[in-house]
Design a protein that fits this description.
Length: 523
């Protein structure tokens, strides 16, 4: 890919390697600007060569890298000009040589893997021999470990008791983390203070690496055993062993401790799921409207004070589906910033019933840390003093979210009580009157756009969004300043309205806002 330009007027757009499971893995050197389009096209080729359309390049081709055993990958090449026959021939030769080199590389890798496997088998045989030699002592140690862990489990000591027992057996610091990497228990010296904040990407990589091992896995100075009683990872038990001192007896103790810990974590998980379900059912009923007396009683049962004033918070992230996983992410972020709330979700957003007014940016910034992306919008209702008013305030939060999503700064937090004029554009108003108002002031522009496939109405809306600033409006529309002047003049001619007239300007600005926010920007 680095030297493709030497073969002609070419650029390497992307490269892919075909894995054993049939998945196409993109090269780290792939260009990012067209990656989704190129990825989709390459996968749709189903092993054949074919053209690839890349904006700005008149010629693009996905070329298969094939060896003796079939397809090994793809190289996607674009050209500034249509290549000549000689240039195409040179490119084809380069592709053949690359495919041959890949075949050799794959063969070398297979040989390395076979050598590693042979080494593993030899090590396994040696371990079996050592086990046979020490079988009597190991069985005695096993009985002692099993008896100790059974006593710990019977005493109901939980995570703290398990880690203390494991530390006492092995002499190594023992710890329990939840599946997200947060510390739950530590026994022994050298505990980090503060304990490192987990990185979601690294934590997933660690769990995947540990899951691939048949038993405890040694990763970065730790001996790790996953706690997964029914296949699902509930947490991990680990020994801190940077010098590699752990022997087979230590591994045995760790495995027994993980087995003893599994019922405790499963029980805690079941309790958490029941509590979460009760919270969601209460939140759903409050949003739909429920009996006030029953709501107070149920909120007390789940430990939530419904007598306090509440704010309805609606969260939507553009690159995240509002599923249970994202709902848990929102819940963690809310807890991290001290929000006490009931949580539930809908098809495209997560809802918090918070018992205090959220900070203007705290939840948004906490969610950026959790998701790794700033592409989210949050709407917050006005203060709600009674459970009976929660459905209405839920609509306010949705309106605040919609205003934020259709504003120039799409990402961030918007409060309903700070919307000003946009508060009258909510779901409770007469849409027929709003549609009539839009038709009166924008109808001719919308009809013109529909007939000519133009964007006069959108240009006018963007002009108002930018405060009438020509340079900023032209930049946001990616057009030249003179083009914007021409469009505004055509808007005056088509609509018959004068943008210099204060009343016309106000009505047009409100009409564009109603058209975009309430009517969804539709014709």
């Amino acid at each position: 890919m680095d030297h493709i330009a030497a073969a002609g007027p070419y650029s390497a757009e992307a490269g892919y390697l075909l894995q054993a499971d049939g998945d196409m893995v993109p090269s780290p050197g792939n260009r990012k600007d067209h990656s989704l389009t190129v990825d989709r096209r390459v996968r749709n080729l189903a092993g054949q060569d074919g053209p690839v359309a890349v904006p700005g390049s008149p010629w693009g081709q996905a070329l298969g890298l094939r060896g003796f055993e079939g397809l090994r990958g793809y190289l996607v090449v674009t050209s500034r000009t249509r290549p000549t026959e000689a240039e195409r021939s040179l490119l084809a030769t380069l592709i053949r040589h690359t495919a041959a080199a890949l075949s050799v590389a794959f063969a070398h890798r297979r040989r390395r893997e076979e050598a590693l496997e042979l080494h593993r088998l030899r090590e396994e045989r040696a371990a079996l021999q050592r086990q046979l030699i020490a079988v009597a002592a190991e069985l005695a140690y096993r009985r002692a470990v099993h008896a100790l862990m059974a006593d710990v489990a019977a005493s109901g000591g939980g995570e703290e008791a398990v880690t203390r027992a494991l530390h006492g057996l092995t002499g190594l610091p023992a710890l329990v983390e939840d599946r997200f990497g947060r510390l739950r228990s530590w026994a022994g010296p050298s505990r980090p203070d503060p304990y490192p904040e987990p990185d979601p990407v690294r934590q997933n990589a660690l769990l995947n690496a540990a899951a691939r091992e048949a038993g405890p896995a040694r990763i970065k100075g730790r001996l790790i055993a996953l706690v997964r009683p029914h296949g699902e990872v509930l947490g991990m038990l680990a020994l801190v062993d940077p010098r590699g001192q752990a022997d087979e007896h230590t591994v045995l103790a760790l495995e027994q401790a993980a087995t003893s810990l599994a019922p405790e974590l499963a029980h805690l998980r079941n309790l958490a799921e029941v509590e979460l379900r009760l919270h969601r059912e209460l939140a759903d009923d409050l949003l739909a409207g429920t009996d006030e007396t029953s709501a107070y009683a149920r909120s007390e049962a789940v430990g939530h004070d419904l007598h306090r004033s509440h704010y309805i918070v609606v969260v939507q992230w553009s690159d995240r589906t509002a599923d249970d996983s994202f709902a848990q992410t929102v819940g963690r972020a809310a807890s991290a910033v001290g929000m006490r709330s009931l949580l539930t979700r809908r098809a495209d957003h997560v809802i918090l019933l918070a018992d205090d007014r959220p900070h203007a940016r705290a939840l948004y910034e906490a969610l950026i840390l959790e998701t790794g992306a700033p592409s989210g919008s949050i709407g917050v209702s006005a203060r709600c003093d009674s459970p009976d008013d929660i459905p209405q305030h839920y609509q306010e939060a949705q309106r605040a979210l919609e205003v934020r999503r259709h504003s120039r700064k799409r990402y961030g937090t918007t409060f309903f009580d700070q919307l000003g004029l946009y508060r009258i554009l909510g779901p409770g108003n007469d849409f027929r009157e709003l549609e009539a108002f839009v038709h009166e002031w924008l109808g001719q522009l919308l009809d013109y756009d529909a007939r000519n496939n133009s964007t006069m109405a959108e240009t006018l809306a963007r002009y108002f969004d930018c405060g009438g600033n020509y340079d900023e409006t032209a930049a946001s529309l990616a057009i030249h300043r003179s083009t914007l002047r021409y469009r505004l003049q055509r808007i005056r001619e088509i609509s018959g309205n004068d943008l210099a007239n204060v009343e016309d300007r106000l009505n047009l600005q409100v009409a564009t806002r109603v058209w975009k926010i309430v009517l969804g920007g539709s014709g």
